[in-house]
Amino acid sequence: MNTEYLDPIDLSAEAALELAELQEGIREDVPSLTHLVKLIIAIPKQSEHFKGRYGRSMLNNVCAYPIFRDSLKHEQREEWDDLEGFRSYLKRYLENLQTSVSEDNKEGINEAKRFCLELGKNLVSEKMAKIYEHHGHANWQDMRHESGPRLQTEN
Question: Quick check: is 127 in a domain?
Answer without folding.
Answer: yes
